[in-house]
Specification:
heterotrimer; A mainly alpha (132); B mainly alpha (766); C mainly alpha (139); B: 766 residues; mainly alpha; Four Helix Bundle (Hemerythrin (Met), subunit A); two-stranded antiparallel sheet; 30 helices; C: 139 residues; 71% helix
Chain lengths: 132, 766, 139
């Protein structure tokens, strides 16, 4: 199964990278979602895949009766999924907000932070420290 | 007028406090009073030469203890800090009454006091360093207290950068010192002085620690931030930038004395830097016309003198340093508050605008006179004893008595002149017209400085009060051996007395000639490049470099960044795989059940649809299918918790994306890329995907260490009473990770809320 | 969306999901479930409600600002961790108390671990709904 998983992860990563290189930030977002899935599968597969029982201890015993699936990567992925959701939702909010404010979803057109002339040094009157 | 007060000039003078403000003051006074009382109870113990040590493990794996050591040196500093803090808090409650950020001020000041106490009481280098930085940060906040003023902000930032940079250097020195001594506990390091002095890193340790101490204690050439720090409200200047914080560097020199002193490098560095600082600063002090600036430079001068005397080994010299430290804190804090009173009362601090205040402000006059006499070193004030001791100490120094004595005489003579200017000019002579009609200040503003001034007199009359309890134990801790120190007003007719008389004569001459002297000094000053200008140029250069490299590296195109990131990833990881010969292709066709093939095929197909679809909704649906397929894979390989979470998150993602996508333009709204650029991107994407797949193959074919999992399986029920091992890991074994994670999610949600609900400042857009 | 069936169905569905989410939360230490899953279930329920009836109605049904729920959750988790510190153990060590335990009966287990999981549950609900409502409302 590791082989299939590796191919699958490779496909997800490739699709994700391709989408993240698009100018449309919505596609970028889709790429991010795929990347999140790919990363979780990598962690999962690195902990070895077995068609085993879930990592639950039967009532009355002190440890799993039969060989159970690896619990540690599962715990890591579980938090990673929720964190990934937070990241996605935040990116989504950024995409939406930039569409409202800038009127575009074209990443190349979002240059508001660049300013007029990037090499212009702000006057050294001490203002920038507090207003940044 | 360069240094106009940023408070007290243009507002009415309310004195009464609201109940809430009184509560604030009370709350701030509480820790100060508690600290003062606690330290005072230790006086008899410490006087006998004992030390008190308290320790709590903090980060045991890194040999960092939250430990405190109270000996003569730290007790002297601790008492000065807490007692002066009480006075400053009382004073500020009237001085800043009615100020918009009244509460904030008291918070900062209390924080500072705790930081400063921690600094002088710490028995661990790292603990000491953390508190050192606390004082740097609170000093920044207090200098920039009047945050609406660009000047105050600039000065605050300057102090932060100079002392902060010094702090970093100090940290490096501490780490090297800790490694050399084999411990970060001061009490252990102090006992290994010979080892450190013979250590090959001694030179580096000494240099790094001295840079830290010199930046904090404003030694030339790092002195320029201190006069600028006078942008802070006057009570802050009295407390931080005269009586306590700037002495942190002096404290460090004294603390490190048993470990680092005695070498030629130590003696000459401290003597030369101290002497240059003392003479330079006292000359610049005379040149000032603003009373507060004048006091600021005499503070720099005092710091130089202290550094110079700490360079020495002789008991008398160190006793002179400790006595002068106490004397200086008493009279300088009082004089700053006197200047604060004058400023508060008249609205100006310019000497030229002041005169004839004696009749209006008799109490302030008394404080000013008593403190100035102590500063000038007149008997029977403690200042006199301090000065005599300095001369005695200077003559006792074996290596360079002439340098030290000459410096001490010149600096003291200039101090006599400054004392005269501060205490006489504003009060006598013709009454001038001031921005505000002068009044005597309320009691809260004179009681504290009065106490300080009276203490200077009382300790002068009965020097045993400080000699046995503070000076002698402090000298013993600085030298690392038991010492006997006696202070007396009258030493008989000897060389120090002769030098004192010389000092007074010179001082009086300076006082009467100060107008002429100032003109000459101003002319010289105008031609010299100041540290301030160097700082400005450095900062300007830094900004230029930042702008230049940003312009060069940060092109501002998201795609470009992503491409660089993945290209680097693919190339570096791919090269490693090839070079390490780690590519491990499978040798047989995978043997899978139908369900597994099905789930894998679903993910694969849906992924392709996401990439090639030109319809938003189609792509989104396919994205959901990918998520469901991944959840199925989790379920098939024994991870029900993960599968459920994945499904739920996937449905939420689809809901959210759907909500947003319906309001966004179609994919076709953005011009699609040219064919060659699509091909280039596809090549990069396939390359990255291949590398990741190869890495995963290589990883899964290495032997697997299951010991961590076995630990969780064996302990889940007996130790954590939970049968779902995944959940037990999440909420018990690795709960700190989970806590960090939910904090991140919560912060992300708050940030998203702010981003969505914020209105654009200029109304461009919605 | 103004489908009659959807809006009628969601009322029942949402209450069911909420009850189920509590069930998942409480059984999580021994069976699949836990604070994350429970929180996501409850949040999905409210998200459905928001789609059917609008974000304003969902906010009213929730009665509390979701940001506040997230912060309370964070506070609950922090206090659960600090209780161990107060008891002299390392931060976040699980403390257990088996109410009414005697002999054979294990009693009702009450623990700071469960409290921590409840904190997780609240944070997930609060954070997810902050996103959902804010995006649903637009600006």
């Amino acid at each position: 199964m590791e082989t299939v998983m590796a191919v699958l992860v490779g496909a997800l990563v490739a699709a994700s990278v391709y989408l993240m290189l698009r100018r449309n930030v919505v596609k970028f977002l889709f790429g991010l979602i795929l990347m999140s899935n790919a990363a979780n599968l990598i962690i999962f597969a690195s902990g070895r895949l077995t068609q085993a029982e879930p990592p639950l201890v039967p009532d009355g015993l002190s440890e799993p009766a039969v060989q159970a699936a690896n619990a540690l990567p599962q715990a890591l992925i579980l938090t990673a999924i929720v964190i990934g959701f937070g990241l996605l939702a935040f990116t989504l909010v950024l995409v939406y907000r930039s569409w409202r404010v800038l009127g575009t979803v074209d990443g190349d057109a979002m240059r508001i932070a660049e300013g007029e002339s990037p090499t212009a040094v702000p006057a050294s009157d001490g203002k920038d420290g507090a207003n940044a | 007028m360069t240094e106009r007060a940023n408070n007290g000039t243009d507002r009415p003078r309310p004195v009464r406090l609201s109940p809430a403000s009184m509560g604030t003051v009370g709350l701030a006074l509480l820790p100060a009073i508690a600290a003062a009382l606690f330290l005072a109870t230790l006086l008899p113990t410490i006087a006998t030469g004992e030390t008190v040590r308290l320790a709590v493990p903090w980060a045991p794996s890194m040999d960092v203890e939250f430990s405190f050591l109270i000996d003569g040196l730290s007790l002297t500093f601790g008492l000065l800090i807490s007692v002066i803090c009480i006075i400053i808090l009382t004073y500020s409650s009237a001085y800043l009454a009615g100020h918009a950020h009244f509460n904030r001020f008291f918070l900062y000041l209390s924080l500072f006091m705790l930081g400063m106490l921690g600094l002088v009481l710490a028995d661990n280098l790292i603990t000491l360093f953390v508190f050192w930085e606390v004082t740097t940060i609170t000093s920044y906040l207090l200098i920039g207290y009047d945050h609406a003023s660009a000047k105050a902000r600039r000065c605050a930032l300057q102090a932060l950068l100079v002392t902060g940079a010094g702090g970093l250097v100090l940290l490096a020195g501490f780490i090297m010192l800790g490694n050399a001594a084999g411990s970060y506990e001061l009490s252990e390091i102090l006992a290994s002085g010979d080892l450190i002095r013979a250590h090959p890193h001694y030179g580096a340790i000494l240099t790094l620690i001295l840079v830290g101490a010199f930046t904090k204690s404003a030694q030339v050439p790092f002195h320029f931030w201190l006069p600028n720090a006078m942008a802070a409200p006057t009570p802050v200047s009295a407390f931080l930038h005269s009586a306590t914080m700037v002495k942190a560097g002096i404290y460090l020199l004294a603390r490190m004395h048993p470990v680092l002193s005695g070498t030629d490098a130590w003696i000459w560095t401290l003597t030369i830097f101290g002497a240059v600082t003392a003479i330079f600063a006292s000359l610049v002090a005379i040149r000032q016309t603003d009373l507060k600036m004048m006091l600021a430079y005499t503070t720099v001068m005092a710091l130089g003198t202290l550094t110079m005397f700490l360079g020495a080994e002789a008991t008398v010299a160190v006793a002179a340093a400790v006595t002068f430290l106490i004397v200086h804190s008493l009279y300088k804090a009082a004089l700053f508050l006197v200047v604060g009173n004058i400023d508060y009362s008249t609205g100006t601090r310019e000497i030229g605008q002041l005169g004839g205040l004696a009749r209006v402000m008799p109490i302030t006059l008394f404080i000013a006179t008593a403190s100035a006499l102590s500063m000038a070193g007149f008997p029977p004030f403690l200042g006199f004893i301090g000065k005599e001791l300095k001369y005695e100490g200077a003559l006792a120094i074996a290596s360079e008595p002439v340098v030290v004595a000459t410096t001490a005489v010149i600096a003291s003579a200039l101090m006599v002149g400054v004392a005269g200017i501060v205490a006489l000019l504003p009060f006598y002579g013709k009454r001038t017209s001031t921005p505000k009609p002068p009044i005597e200040v309320p009691i809260r503003m004179w009681i504290g400085p009065l106490l300080l001034a009276v203490a200077g007199l009382a300790f002068g009359l009965a020097p045993a009060l400080v000699a046995d309890t503070l000076v002698q134990p402090a000298v013993a801790s600085i030298l690392g051996r038991p010492e006997t120190v006696k202070l007396a007003l009258w030493h008989g007719i000897n060389v120090p007395l002769a030098l004192s008389i010389l000092t007074f004569s010179l001082g009086v001459a300076i006082y009467f000639g100060h107008w002429r002297l100032r003109k000459i000094l101003a002319a010289i000053d105008a031609r010299m490049i100041s540290g301030d200008e160097v700082y400005d140029r450095c900062l300007h250069g830094l900004r230029w470099i930042a702008a230049f490299q940003t312009d060069w590296i940060q092109v501002g195109l998201l795609r470009r960044y992503i491409a660089v990131i993945f290209a680097v990833l693919a190339l570096s990881v791919g090269a490693t795989l090839v070079l390490r010969d780690a590519i491990a292709l499978p040798d047989r066709w995978p043997d899978l059940a139908l369900a597994e093939w099905g789930a894998a095929a679903l993910v694969f197909a849906a992924t392709i649809v996401v990439v090639i679809s030109s319809s938003r909704l189609m792509a989104m649906t396919a994205l959901g299918a990918v998520g469901v397929g991944v959840a199925l894979l989790f379920l098939l390989f024994g991870a029900p918790d993960v599968a459920i979470t994945q499904l739920l998150v996937e449905s939420l993602v689809v809901i959210l994306v759907a909500v947003v996508l319906l309001r966004l333009p179609h994919f076709s709204a953005v011009e699609s890329a040219r064919r060659w650029s699509r091909r280039r991107d596809a090549a990069l994407a396939l390359g990255t995907g291949t590398v990741v797949a190869l890495v995963l193959l290589a990883v899964t074919q290495t032997p697997f260490d299951r010991s961590l999992t076995v630990f969780f399986e064996e302990n889940s029920v007996p130790a954590a009473f939970g049968r779902n091992i995944v959940n037990v890991i999440l909420v018990d074994f690795r709960a700190l990770d989970t806590f960090g994670e939910i904090a991140v999610v919560a912060v992300a949600a708050l940030a998203a809320y702010a981003v969505l609900k914020a209105r654009p400042a200029s109304g461009d857009g919605s | 969306m103004n489908s009659v069936i959807l809006s009628a169905a969601t009322r029942i569905l949402v209450s069911l999901m909420l009850v189920f989410s509590l069930f998942m939360l409480l059984r999580g230490h021994n069976e699949p479930g836990g604070g994350f899953i429970g929180g996501l279930l409850a949040a999905t329920g409210y998200a459905l409600y928001a789609i059917a009836h609008g974000a304003a109605a969902a906010r009213r049904a929730l009665r509390m600002d979701p940001r506040m729920i997230a912060m309370i959750g964070l506070g609950v988790a922090l206090v659960a961790g600090l209780l161990a510190a107060v008891a002299g153990d390392a931060f976040l060590t699980g403390l257990w108390w088996f109410a009414g335990a005697d002999g054979d009966s294990k009693g009702l287990p009450i623990s700071t671990v469960l409290m921590f999981d409840i904190g997780v549950y609240l944070v997930v609900i609060g954070a997810v709904l902050t996103f959902v409502f804010a995006l649903e409302e637009g600006d």
